[in-house]
Amino acid sequence: MIRIEKFLLFVFLLGSLNLLAQDKELAKIINWYNGPKQGMSTDLAYKKLLAGKKSEPVVVAVIDSGVDIEHQDLKDRIWVNKDEIPDNGIDDDKNGYIDDVYGWSFLGNPDGEDVEHEQLEVTRIYARLHKKFDGVNESDVADADKADYELYQEVKGKVESELETSAKNLTQYEQIMDKMEGADAMLKKANDGADYTLKDLKKLKKSDDKEVAASAEMMSQMMSMGLTMKRLQGAIDHFKGSSEYHYNPEFDARAVVGDNPADFNDKYYGCNDVEGPDAFHGTHCAGIIGAVRGNGIGGDGVADNVLIMSVRAVPDGDERDKDIALAIRYAVDNGAQVCNMSFGKSYSSYPDEVIEAIKYAEEKGVLLVHAAGNSNMDTEKNSNYPSPQYPGMTERFTNWIEVGASTRYEKPVYLEKDGKLKKYSVGLAASFSNYSDKVVDIFAPGLEIYSTVPQSDYAAIQGTSMAAPMVAGLAALLKSYFPELTMFQIKDIILKSGQDLGGQMVFLPGTHDEIEFKKLSRTGMVANVYNAVEMAMGM
User: Fold this and answer.
1) pLDDT-derived band of residue 471, with 50, 70 and 90 as boundaries?
2) What CA–CA distance (Å, rounded) separates 381 from 111?
3) CATH class held by domain 4-115+259-538
4) Rounded distance, CA 91 to CA 81, Å?
5) Cβ distance 319 to 233 under 8 Å?
């Protein structure tokens, strides 16, 4: 799921390193995740352990919203299907996908149309079951349909509640925007047509024009709360998206693709547009994995000899199980050794088919790295699909790493509890990160991550979506320099070589309750490149 509140929690869109360097606070975040302490000590590993050593290129599939393959920091790191002749309209390699030179999109059609927005899975389930159970009393439900009826009642409450809330919030924010736009125009006119600052507003509050004075007072309050028109528009777009797409049972995005989402044998659909209408998220993940190192622009990728395969399967909304299952199979069949999967959702309509695709990757020795999710919840108690272990399974997938998000902060903070001041980490575990000592394997940097975005630009965003490609990049690095290692051995190395932070106390994500960091994941560690390379060398 790629929704603005899930991953774009703060953004700095900047055109160049020089611009970033003008702000010392922003400059601190560049490549912090490659550094020591709370980072992964990537730079130190290259300097001390890998200098002068040879490596082989490793293909990493980024199953995501799309990747800007022409980005200045990625264009030389893009996988090319050498068995396919570009743009000749022929399936040269006979894999079923015509002109799949740089990957494939399961979200478009050959006419150039793309799916940008989608429903959430909970809405799809509601729409499907509503036809069957709308107006039906529980006493009239057959025993064979009881489970579906209970599920319908569950999703019905969620969808209808979210639709009502979104509509109310949209109306409220649009009304605020109308007032702010009117006030903004009036204040600019009163300020000789120029943009105004908080200092200007202090003067305008004293204006003899009562409307100008009132507008200055209102705008001053808004600005002091950090509520700008740009942020307000972001909220409007979010609630409009929830109403029109995510929770709208009538919305049908799949007409663009033209396949049957329930028919997994209908698999040769889509197009070769691997960027799509919004490649922000996928491009950011790709840069974390393999942006050119040491060129003085943007951030440095974790792996220095990697080829990014773009497999587009994740829209704004929830990904389809069918697309994900086929995306995994496509990546495996076309040579990917690692798949980065920075997406997730609360419901799954076709889990069996996704499980079979994961097992197929397992059989082929392909490692899947998955983001744990950004709902600050225990994923043992709350579903997040796809998962390393589905209900009914007795064992986890052996080719899976589930990744939570850590931060660069280690300076202690003191909070009062039970009448005493106690020392806490400022947030080694990111406040948004999901966690579980049964489900999440390891943590990796996921806050304030500066990486590539479309149009050869860069941005700093946060999420477990950023933590997963840290680990995917580490896996690719190890496979690149130690090609004799299997991906299962590499997984084992990553999970055993993380930075052990002992009994360090942190906040349980989403709360101010104290907990030992090591209890938030199965390993209790933060992924560490230096330690992993050192262990691989020992092997």
Assistant:
1) very high
2) 43
3) alpha beta
4) 12
5) no
